[in-house]
Amino acid sequence: MRFDPLRHHRGPIRLQGYDYSSEGSYFVTMCTKGREGLLGEIVGHEMRLSEVGEIVKQYWLDLPDHFCNVTINEYQVMPNHVHGVVVIWNHRRDLINQIPTGVRNEYFVVQTDFPSMKNPKQTLGKIIRHFKGKATKKIHDAGFCGFAWQPRFHDHIIRDEEDLVRIREYIRENPLNWATDDENP
Question: pTM for this one?
Answer without folding.
Answer: 0.77
